[in-house]
Amino acid sequence: MQEIFQGIFIETYFTGVTVGAIVLPHGTILLDAPLKMEDVRSWRAALANQGSSTNRLLVNLDAHPDRSLGARALECTIIAHQKTAQIFRSRPSVFKGQNAESGSEWEIYNDAVGTRWAMPDITFTQRISLHWGPPDVILEHHPGPAPGATWAIIPDAKVVFIGDAVLVNQPPFLANADITSWLESLDVLAKTYRDYIIVSGRGGTLPIDAVHSQIKTLKNIIKGMDRLSKRNAPPEATESLIPGLLANMSFPTHLEEQYLQRLRYGLSVYYARYVRYRGASNHDQAENPM
What we know:
Elements: E1 2-5, E2 8-11, E3 19-24, E4 27-31, H1 37-48, E5 56-59, H2 65-68, E6 77-81, H3 82-89, E7 122-124, E8 127-130, E9 137-141, E10 150-154, E11 159-161, H4 179-192, E12 197-200, E13 204-206, H5 208-230, H6 242-246, H7 256-287
Parallel strand pairs: 4-5, 5-6, 6-7, 11-12
Antiparallel strand pairs: 1-2, 2-3, 3-4, 8-9, 9-10, 10-11, 12-13
């Protein structure tokens, strides 16, 4: 566990995602949940040693199973964006492990199947402030990697938790993404929060250069999609984009197949949506010429 500012902690060694905690006078605000139950217990014990109280609030930064399956075991009130809550409501009450092909961490953790989801107790639409401090914690909607993607911002500490908005040395999750919105969110991050400690939901703190690298990666994906779309290529053709996307990433060899699969799945699903959207837009323009 690392203290990145007084009372603000992160843990990067659990399976799944980087989790955070803000220990405040009124209680502890938790940012995402460890995936494994043994990691949940370890996280709670570590925070207790730092003076964390039993008054806890958990923030789901999005609905990805890697960061939300362990939520129930934290036994506390949960807050999430309204669109994240909608995704939870559309799922079966028990996680059945469908679509085990997305290159996510839960897919290599057998005990994840059968876990009961914990529904958010509180939702918001754009912005909400938590006054458990000082300092105050602001939750803001910044869509892109997921419809309900949320950032947790602590202005007095100049710390921002950004979930999956930026991933270093691993490919992005694209299946539920909106790359146009994602680029807009990253532009805000690069301009407004360049002097902040930026915490990625997978890997911990990162330099501002990583934000620019993520922007470049997403723009390259859009360019590749454009080329394939102009040729009316099928979704499977997106696999040709993978070598170029992985070329500048450095990761252990044992993760290569997982990351390849993450891109195979994410690119094909995104492209299928992307081509349909372009087709619908072109049809509308033909029906309603200027």
